[in-house]
Request: fold
Amino acid sequence: MTHPKAELRLTGPRAHPGGGPEGPKKKKGFGRAEALAVAQGAFYTATGVWPILDLESFEAVTGPKPEGWLVKTVGGLLGVAGAALTLAGARKRVTPELALIGAGSAAVLAAIDVVYVGKRRISPVYLLDAVAEGALVAAWAATAREVAAEARSPGERAESRVQGGLRLTAERRKRGDGGGMLARRQRRAG
Reply:
């Protein structure tokens, strides 16, 4: 059940933080999360599509692969993840879920690189990729607060303030310490 005061409509300059009646102003330029998503997306798209387009040159750099179809499958998945990261960053829509895809993909690839180079199953050149993937994980960790803050819409932030005020008023009434102007008026009238 909605509290009657939760129906408040904000008007004036505080109605839409950072903007007028149309809502918040768009940020100029890219934030760190958007730039990171575009960079990682471009990297994943390029490296993902490469073995699909030219497996021979890919193997010349990374070493022979017994299962070409599997290399192309992983490349396709990386290409799709890369395209999603690039588009989200370019559109300034980097959500916590997208950041998880970025950081999680990088962490998994780094772990695979290190483990299978150690087992001598893949070429040591993959350690260079592990370093790049580790840097991506660290960069996503550094942008976590920015991504979380951007995920909250202006409406959610305003609703949170209203609910916080309602909670505070209810707590004051329970304690009997006044409850604000309305409580004072009720005491005077009663």
Summary: Residues 68-90 form the longest helix (23 residues). Residues 33 and 143 are 6 Å apart (CA to CA). Confidence is low (pLDDT under 50) at residues 6-20. The two ends are 28 Å apart (CA to CA).
